[in-house]
Write a structure and sequence with these properties.
The complex is a heterodimer.
Chain A: H1 5-17, E1 19-20, E2 23-24, H2 26-39, H3 44-61, E3 63-68, H4 74-88, E4 93-98, E5 106-110, E6 113-116, H5 119-129
Chain B: H1 2-16, E1 21-31, E2 34-39, E3 47-50, E4 56-62, E5 66-72, E6 83-90, E7 92-95, E8 103-104, E9 121-124, E10 141-142, H2 147-152, E11 155-156, E12 162-165, H3 171-192, E13 200-207, H4 211-223, E14 230-235, H5 241-260, E15 264-270, H6 272-285, H7 299-307, E16 321-329, H8 338-346, E17 349-353, H9 355-359, E18 372-373, H10 382-388, H11 391-405, H12 413-429, H13 439-450, H14 462-476, H15 478-487, H16 492-508
Parallel strand pairs in B: 8-14, 12-16, 12-17, 13-14, 13-15, 15-16
Antiparallel strand pairs in B: 1-2, 1-6, 2-5, 3-4, 3-6, 4-5, 7-9, 10-11, 17-18
Classes of the chains: A alpha+beta, B alpha/beta.
Chain lengths: ~130, ~500
Amino acid sequence: MKISKEARHIARSLYRDSLTDGRLDESKVRTIASGLTAAKPRELIAILKTYERLVRLEIERNTARVESAVALDGAMQQQITAQLQQIYRRPIAAEFGVNPELIGGVRVRVGSDVWDGSVAHRLRELGAAL
Amino acid sequence: MANILQEIEQQIAGAKRGVAKQNVGVVREIGDGVAKIEGLTDAMLNEMIDFGNDIYGIALNLEETEVGAIILGEYTHIKEGMECRTTGRLLSVPVGMGLLGRVVNSIGMPLDGKGPVKSDTLYPVEKIAPGIIKRRSVSQPVQTGIMAVDAMIPIGRGQRELIIGDRSTGKTTIGIDTIINQARMNRAAEQAGDKSYRPLYCIYVAIGQKQSNIVRVTNVLEEHGAMPYTIVLAASAADTATNQYLAPFAGAAMGEWFMDNGMDALIIFDDLSKHAVAYRQVSLVLRRPSGREAYPGDVFYLHSRLLERAARLSEKAGNGSLTALPIIETQLGDVSAYIPTNVISITDGQIYLETDLFYQGIRPAISVGLSVSRVGSAAQVKAMKQVAGRIKGDLAQFRELAAFAQFGSDLDAKTQAQLERGKRIVEVFKQPQYNPVPIEVQVGLLWAVQNGFFDDVAVDKLKDCQAQMSDYLTSRKPELMTKILKEKALSDALVAELKAAVTEFKQTYR
């Protein structure tokens, strides 16, 4: 879908309005989204799509998706979350999941950064090197 | 066996190391060899992007939330939603002597079925041209073996000389002739054990050409024994626009290796019109704003940064050189189109080929009035300067008189003599393709023309007389030819010897 420059510009300014102290404000996002739908401006869908994308990327930037081959215990989860916050120097929400394909180890993704300490990844690297 | 085990152990130790951070993105759009990727927040401009399965791309557009990348190779295997990662590397190609005699593609992979390319050095495809401190002015000649070029539009090592003309006017032939002549001279110097001669290695970059054409060129080079000194880089019309866009830059990287290692290289870009078209396609698919003739705004910079990489380096910087002969195809002789004017303004002169001259039988069809070499005369061999200094003027005068003479029949003796001499000069400069003439023979022939030794030969017999004189000079007077080549200037004694030789030939010529 082709999104015009104007729609992108509006979406970007709405996104800026959704921030409080540099962080996404959930209530503001809700108000803006419902207000936008009610006002029905031109190119509503394009604006909403761009806005949704910006919000999604910001959420991904502040969310760590932690995958492990087996479920992690509470202490381990806390340790990982604390370390991530230390690295990024901002609050990071962590989502934990189990992925048996990793064989062993942990894979963490924050935004577009990935720390892959899984056995599957190491085997892949070894295979490529050999 | 123990070595293999050690290697595997090293690999395992490497794999055990701590977890490294990777920067990944997700393919959101893919089409026409261009991918739009969400993420990749750490991507650098021109960085290689790894799509897995040995498929790589180059990040060209860094936007707020997206990266636009061009794909090298087969892009149909890339799917929407696929993950890709940055590599921290810029696109590099293998360089070195191992590439001589090979036909490779834009990323240096062999196309000739002669096995892998032997090279342990990689050079980045995009590189900043040598700065002003490292350079020196052009002072050594590139002998093309084409009389009209060597006499009137001399090219120096490190120069950028444009070859421009309509389709089928002999643009590629000038490049091929030059390569063949370099091979001839390199081989002669090798056989004679001449250490003072600096061999000139050649790189022929074919962009957007028919594969049959590329094969034809390669066969010609092989037939004339030029391949051992030549690299052919082919990005044919069947290749993606990405590969066509990268080809001249990859060729320039291969040439720069010779330059950086104190050697001389010559690169022929055949042709930059098709290169601009490939770049226009890539830019439009990347949704970059288009300008005149739908080319992107940076099409001038595209060619200027490429051609700036041709240089002559100072003694301190290794004394190497890279000479560039870009080729531009015009439409109906229109040199004022966008790309031709750009490249004319970037280069240090142009060889302009005319369709009319070509069909009149004047081949190479060089238009003397419109062709110029801005820096090459400083590098021209002195002997050639002595015999060819006035020729360009004489030819211009001849054309003017010839046009004037059409209107009147009564001409004075002087004008008639000038016209007759002009006709003979034009005839002497006609030369069959793939038949370069050694510089010493060129000097002998041009001296003979300038001193009226061809005046009594009928114009239609002149080519035959010229061929016989060339044979005579090379086979019967090799010492004289060697002297001209060594001394590089015509002293009084040499002129006397040349006069005696030419007079002797004229007595025997029937």
